[in-house]
Amino acid sequence: LQKPIALFARTRRKSTREFVGVCGLSLQDLPDGRCCEFGYFLKERFWGRGYALGCRDYAFSLGFSEICALIPKRNAPSHRVAERLGMTCRGDVPGRRLPHELYAVSRTAR
User: Fold this and answer.
1) Backbone angles phi, psi at 99, to 5 degrees
2) DSSP-assigned beta bridge partners for residue 85
3) What's the pLDDT tens digit per position in 47-71?
4) Quick check: 40 and 52 in contact, CB under 8 A?
5) Cβ–Cβ contacts within 10 Å for residue 13, how many?
């Protein structure tokens, strides 16, 4: 692939089909190589109910051996979610408008 691509899907509750948010993957070019970035945007009332974990597991079901998240340094809640998903901080990500840190997890480490 020449340029990063993104794939996002609408997420719904199984029982009611109510819209919960979106989750997806985006290939990102970083100085040390390419990573499959995992991201999600959920309605606040659905936070803490396992949807982020389900999205992470779906990413692995597509065959990725590792996923990452580029998180702004000042976004402490997102750092905590990444850690609950088994991700560890791998360091700073240069070249962003705001300072970011790279979090990642491999399929075998989760």
Assistant:
1) -60, 130
2) none
3) 888 888 888 888 888 888 899 999 9
4) yes
5) 12
